[in-house]
Design a protein that fits this description.
Strand content of chain A: under 5%
Strand order of the largest sheet of chain A: 1-2
Number of helices of chain A: 27
Shape of chain A: globular
Shape of chain C: globular
Distance between the termini of chain C: 69 Å
Strand content of chain C: under 5%
Helix content of chain C: over 70%
Structural class of chain C: mainly alpha
Order of helices and strands of chain C: HHHHHH
Number of strands of chain C: 0
Order of helices and strands of chain A: HHEHEHHHHHHHHHHHHHHHHHHHHHHHH
Structural class of chain A: mainly alpha
Chains: A mainly alpha (634), B mainly alpha (360), C mainly alpha (169), D mainly alpha (111)
Number of strands of chain A: 2
Largest sheet of chain C: none
Number of helices of chain C: 6
Radius of gyration of chain C: 20 Å
Radius of gyration of chain A: 29 Å
Oligomer: heterotetramer
Largest interface: C-D, 91 and 78 residues
């Protein structure tokens, strides 16, 4: 049977072609570059929808191709170095998420980036980014995933540093690249370890070996934890989270695409992809759960005090990704993926809405906004719905997936009672914080009167339409996994009936907590008030300072890089200049003495050297042929 | 289309029939190596005679056509309609005193015309005039033609260098640069018929065109044909690519100092090459000798002279290009176009979507 | 009773071997560098003919196309672009010439002794009856695909390098 | 009847090898003794041709007809083309700076 899914490898091709066309010449026309990219992503999106449809009908595909059949390379190595793709529920879902969000964000960028000097370059990078991301999702073995994974990293570097003439943007781009590289190094080590142990890079084969018991601890645990390092870097989990807030220096559509919907989700996707391996290592599961839960809470607290709307959203993203990791860590992969699926839409919507108001007022500082509900009613409406969804209120999409995660944490078999209770409480606290900071942002931006001076100006339709389109999945996408439809998402994802059922008590508790958070935000910031926030800041000065300095993690890294490394380097330099150089200089002096005698051999004439070379070679040949020469004489 | 020629059917392949008869006769009276040697020698002699006739006919035709296009008569005094004008010219050239400049490097100066003319004549040994009708059919025929096409460059450089005249040196360098620049798209574009036919033997290429002339092998056949013609015109230094001998800039280019016999040889080589390019265009793209009703060799000559007419037409229509335009055309237009066309043809073949050819 | 093909082939081989060696010596002995280049053309063309006698028809054509058509034109261009160098004495001092001649003769002597006294596998006297082009092409794209790719890379690097080195500032 | 032939033909492997060695040796003599850098390049081409002749002779007389020798000949031609291009570029660059192409004039490295 020939299906669209059979040709799923075609999905990244249009965007790649768009990238090449822009690079090769379409860049001369910015408008053409933009619409070329949008058109290409649209094709990818349509194909992805087809693939999802077929996958829902039960199609499962895995193809591998030997990409460089070179005689002389062992067959097993060739097989390992094959590239291929698979189509399964996980891939199909991610394809739709990535291509749909990319499509809308790029449509939005056509308006948002209008008049930018690097317009064509921007779209070229975006097209390549989408290609890479689709590649991560399609790849069926670690080699393919890793190649696309690094390409995603490269594109994020290009896009965060899009305004590279600004030093902060350039620094942020470098930071993002280097920090994620740190995680990627672990990922590469993990791939190599698993390859050495199993002799293959194909995820499905390694999974079978883990299930069948050929792949055991400690290699199993160490391997998946190293792979998890890559996910920690990409998904900005503690302790490699430091790049994400800075990455907000990039254009807002970039933030929406990379830092909310797709690239950071790649880490979660990777853990979901390797979940069948991961679940055989309880220790690794615990690490993932603790890091996920910890990051969820930790990032949410930092979001409380930020003045920068995009940073609030960035912390929120880290926090939600922590949620997804937590879900995977407690063994509920489908709950994590479900949250990823919903989150992609409403977080993209929030970013694009934020971009809409930033585009209007020209600053990211929420304290210079206010009252914008009149000027940007569409953004106000859609962002409020998205914020409600993020806070987890019935019946929006966030409610269903967050609830599923909470149920999974509360009922997990993987952790002890104490750990389960702690993580559950942490998750609930995060719900409260999330509701609070989101509505703090909404009130500050849209409530009260405008505190800035920017004049009003109309918004191009390309920026409004994506907001409205994204509103639809923000409201309805949750029903796919809701108990109203029998947890269809989990069944689809895991291939059997969902393990976690809906629990009314937990739903009520979490809804109550979220409402409390919104109420507190209304109390403090309702109607655009800013005084109570300032008062709270003054009263809780030490805590504020701690949060404002982001728990001093950046300082710690700077100290490690600046002091510790430089200190060791200083010691090494002393050793080098005294001990090593002393020895080298001594030898050197001896050689100089000898050389001044021998230098007369060097005529500088290249032919002299060539003559010596040939004479030497001929002497050697003569020695080797001596028996023959003597034989000839005889 | 005529069916496969029976060897004895005189009208269909008169030369083949005669050759068969001579061979049969000789092998009856002589031991084995000699008949084939004699028959081959006869064929060479015939083609050599043919060269003289063809070149004279070309010179006459070109001058008459150009004359007509320029609204004048052209040669019309010697012989009926001026047909013997070329013979008169040849006699004039051969009886002129050969001048050798004092500054010239005499040996090289005298050798240069030979180095130019011999490869031009050698090409003729593989031209397939009809089924089974060529001096020899090499299985690397296309490559042989291309390799021989590269040799005259050296002769031109020799002529320019040895004349001891700066215009000649400049003309020689221009010619050499032009030849190697257009050689590359030429080599690439010739690969398209080779790819389509699956052989480099010229006869094989013609036979593969029984169903479809390669010029019609859409979508790349026509592009390749045009590219071949353009590169071919440049390769034989004809207008509008006749910069090496641009009178208004560098006198007569590399053959400024040649007169008499030497000039006659360059002249002969130029027309022999023009015919060879026309013949190769016919063979590679226009189905060679294939055609209905008429004997194959007639078809071959019809098509070849048609292509030659196009060359003449181009010459009298287009102005000479500037040197930078020439190089621009070679490296920035013809070469990429040829590369892309060859690449896409290969893709087309590997996907088996070439019209008119059987899937391989 | 002669076998004519073999006889002709042997005659061609000896003729072209002689011309190639004459050409090679001519490169060293010629008056003026331009003539050296012409002698090199003679050598290269003769060697191409020798390939044909050794059953490498494809290679012979490629030799003419690549060496004579491209490399030699390049070299002659180089000669023309470096004027005032043509008439200078082109051979090194007597010591250098003697040393060079000595290693060359020594090499040739050793090689000849080794070649003539070694036991070579009995060669097939029948000419190779294969479609050389096809066999070489298949070889290039299967067994030797890696060297082929590296050679392509080498050409690219050489091209870029030559442009960078020779370009006027 | 090959066995009845005079020893002068058919051409054997040794003929090709000796020719290759001769070309290589002559080229080497030229490369070591000529002063003009372009002549040195030409002499090196002769050496490479000697090597190719050797390869082709081996290919002709190899027991298997896979033409490995001819394939390698093609690689050598590739290298020769690259060498000529880069070599001439260097010669021209040197000429532009020092107004000479004599190899013994470029002796900045003399000790």
């Amino acid at each position: 049977m020939s299906t669209v899914a059979d040709s799923a490898w075609l999905i990244p091709v249009p965007t790649l072609a768009a990238f090449l066309l822009i690079a090769l010449g379409a860049r001369r026309s910015p408008a053409a570059s933009g619409w070329l990219t949008v058109g290409a992503v649209f094709i990818s999106f349509v194909l992805s929808l087809n693939v999802l449809y077929e996958t829902l009908a039960g199609v499962r595909i895995e193809h591998a191709y030997a990409w460089l059949p070179v005689p002389g390379i062992p067959a097993n190595l060739q097989a390992a170095l094959s590239l291929g793709f698979q189509v399964d529920p996980l891939t199909a879902t991610m394809l739709v998420v990535v291509s749909s969000v990319s499509l809308l964000v790029q449509l939005y960028s056509v308006g948002y980036m209008h008049g930018d000097r690097g317009y064509a370059r921007f779209f070229a990078s975006m097209a390549l980014f989408t290609t890479a991301m689709l590649g991560v999702v399609l790849g069926n073995n670690f080699l393919a995933i890793y190649i696309a994974w690094e390409l995603v990293g490269l594109c994020s570097y290009l896009l965060i540093g899009h305004w590279h003439e600004r030093p902060e943007a350039a620094a942020a781009a470098k930071k993002a690249f280097l920090v994620t590289r740190l995680g990627d190094f672990g990922f590469l080590l993990g791939i190599l370890l698993l390859f050495v142990e199993t002799g293959t890079l194909e995820v499905s084969v390694i999974t079978q070996m883990a299930v069948g018991g050929q792949l055991r601890d400690p290699v199993l645990t160490v391997g998946v934890l190293l792979v998890f390092c890559g996910a920690v870097g990409k998904s900005a989990q503690f302790p490699l989270h430091v790049w994400l807030p800075d990455a907000m220096e990039g254009p807002t559509p970039v933030s929406a695409l990379i830092h909310a919907a797709t690239m950071v989700a790649a880490g979660v996707y990777l853990m979901a992809r390797t979940f069948p391996i991961l679940e055989h290592s309880p220790a690794a599961l615990t690490v993932v759960a603790v890091i996920g839960g910890g990051t969820a809470f930790f990032a949410a607290t930092m979001g409380l005090i930020s003045r920068d709307i995009k940073r609030v959203l960035a912390y929120s993203t880290m926090s939600q990704l922590g949620y997804m990791m937590l879900a995977i860590g407690v063994g509920a992969m489908s709950a994590g993926m479900f949250h990823l699926f919903n989150h992609a839409f409403f977080k993209a919507l929030l970013f694009l809405g934020a971009g809409s108001v930033i585009h209007l007022v020209g600053t990211n500082d929420m304290f210079e906004m206010g009252g914008l509900r009149h000027r940007r009613p569409v953004a106000f409406l859609t962002m409020t719905v998205a914020a409600l969804s993020l806070a987890g209120l019935f019946p929006l999409s966030g409610f269903w997936s967050k609830d599923e995660i909470l149920v999974a944490v509360a009922t997990t078999q993987h952790l002890g009672d104490v750990g389960r209770t702690l993580l559950y409480l942490l998750a609930l606290a995060t719900v409260f914080l999330t509701a609070f900071y989101m509505f703090r942002a909404i009130y500050l931006i849209y409530g009260g009167r405008y505190r800035g001076h920017a004049p009003d100006h109309p918004e191009p339709w390309t920026m409004t339409v994506p907001l409205l389109v994204l509103l639809v999945p923000t409201i309805v996408s949750g029903f796919w996994g809701s108990p109203l439809l029998g947890n269809a998402f989990a069944t689809f994802m895991e291939g059997h009936a969902a393990p976690t059922a809906f629990r009314l008590d937990i739903a009520l508790v979490s809804t109550g907590i979220a409402l409390a958070g919104i109420y507190l935000a209304w109390m403090m910031y309702g109607g655009g008030k800013t005084e109570s926030g300032a008062y709270a800041t003054k009263q809780l000065r030490p805590l504020y300072t701690l949060l404002d300095n982001r728990y001093y993690v950046d300082h710690l890294y700077n100290w490690i890089a600046g002091r510790l490394v430089l200190g060791i380097a200083w010691l090494a330099a002393r050793f080098d200049s005294l001990v090593v150089d002393g020895a080298v200089n001594g030898i050197g002096a001896a050689v100089v003495g000898l050389g001044s005698e021998l230098r007369r051999v060097q005529t500088g004439q290249v032919q002299t050297y060539a003559w010596a070379l040939f004479a030497g070679a001929i002497t050697l040949a003569a020695v080797a042929a001596l028996p023959l020469i003597l034989g000839a004489r005889r | 289309m005529l069916p496969e020629c029976p060897a004895s059917f005189f009208l269909c392949d008169p030369f083949g029939a005669v050759r068969g008869a001579i061979y049969a006769l000789l092998s009856a009276i002589l031991p084995e190596p000699l008949p084939i040697v004699i028959v081959t020698a006869l064929a060479i002699a015939m083609v050599t005679t043919l060269i003289a006739i063809i070149v004279m006919s070309q010179v006459w035709a070109e001058r008459r056509i150009v004359g007509y296009m320029q609204g004048r008569l052209g040669p019309n005094r010697v012989g009926p309609g001026g047909t013997l004008q070329a013979i008169a010219d040849a006699i004039k050239l051969l009886t002129k005193e050969p001048l050798i400049p004092r500054e010239a490097d005499k040996v090289v100066f005298l050798l240069a015309p030979l180095v130019v003319v011999v490869p031009s004549l050698m090409v003729w040994s593989v031209i397939p005039w009809g089924p089974g009708l060529s001096v020899t059919d090499l299985n690397i025929g296309v490559l042989y033609v291309l390799a021989l096409g590269a040799l005259p460059t050296i002769g031109i450089l020799m002529a320019g260098w040895s004349s001891g005249n700066k215009y000649a040196v400049l003309g020689g360098m221009r010619a050499a640069a032009q030849l190697i620049s257009y050689e590359i798209p030429m080599v690439l574009v010739v690969m398209i018929p080779v790819l389509l036919a699956g052989t480099m033997a010229l006869r094989g290429i013609v036979e593969e065109q029984t169903d479809l002339w390669f010029v019609l092998a859409l979508p790349f056949g026509p592009i390749a044909f045009v590219l071949f013609l353009v590169s071919g015109i440049a390769e034989v230094n004809r207008s509008p690519f006749d910069l090496p001998e641009a009178e208004s800039e560098i006198v007569a280019g590399f053959h400024t100092e040649y007169s008499g016999m030497g000039f006659a040889l360059f002249f002969l080589a130029e027309y022999a090459n023009s015919f060879a390019v026309s013949a190769m265009a016919t063979t590679l793209f226009l189905g060679g000798w294939l055609g209905p009703f008429l004997p194959p060799f007639i078809w071959f000559f019809l098509k070849t002279y048609l292509v030659f007419f196009v060359l003449v037409w181009v010459r009298s229509t287009l102005p000479r290009v500037r040197y930078d335009q020439l190089m621009h055309l070679a490296w920035k237009v013809a070469l990429p176009a040829a590369l892309i066309t060859v690449g896409l043809t290969a893709v087309q073949l590997s996907l088996n979507v070439v019209p008119g050819t059987a899937p391989r | 009773m002669l076998i004519p093909t073999d006889f002709l082939l042997a005659g061609a081989f000896y003729t072209f071997a002689a011309t190639s060696i004459v050409g090679a010596i001519g490169i060293i002995r010629a008056r003026g560098i331009f003539r050296s280049a012409l002698f090199l053309v003679l050598t290269l063309a003769s060697v191409a003919a020798i390939y044909v006698t050794l059953g490498a028809d494809f290679l012979g054509a490629v030799q003419v196309l690549v060496y004579v058509g491209a490399i030699m034109v390049l070299i002659i261009f180089g000669i023309m672009l470096t004027p005032q160098q043509v008439e200078l004495p082109d051979i090194g001092g007597p010591g250098q010439a003697a040393a060079a001649a000595f290693v060359a003769v020594a090499l040739f002597a050793i090689a000849t002794i080794v070649i003539t006294t070694s036991q070579w596998p009995r060669s097939t006297s029948a000419a190779i009856d294969v479609a050389t082009t096809q066999v070489i092409g298949t070889g290039l794209f299967t067994t030797y695909v890696l060297p082929f790719e590296i050679a392509s890379l080498l050409l690219l690097v050489a091209m870029i390098g030559a442009i960078v080195i020779a370009r006027e500032e | 009847m090959p066995d009845a032939l005079p020893p002068i033909y058919p051409i054997t492997l040794q003929h090709g090898l000796v020719l290759g060695a001769a070309l290589f040796a002559i080229g080497m003599a030229g490369a070591l003794s000529k002063r003009n850098a372009i002549t040195v390049l030409m002499a090196i081409e002769v050496m490479l041709n000697g090597v190719i002749v050797t390869f082709v002779a081996f290919a002709r007389h190899a027991p298997t007809a896979d033409l490995t020798g001819q394939v390698f000949a093609i690689f050598i031609m590739t290298v020769a083309a690259a060498e000529a291009a880069v070599g001439l570029a260097i010669v021209i660059a040197v000429y532009r700076v020092r107004r000479t192409v004599q190899v013994d004039a470029a002796d900045t490295l003399r000790g």
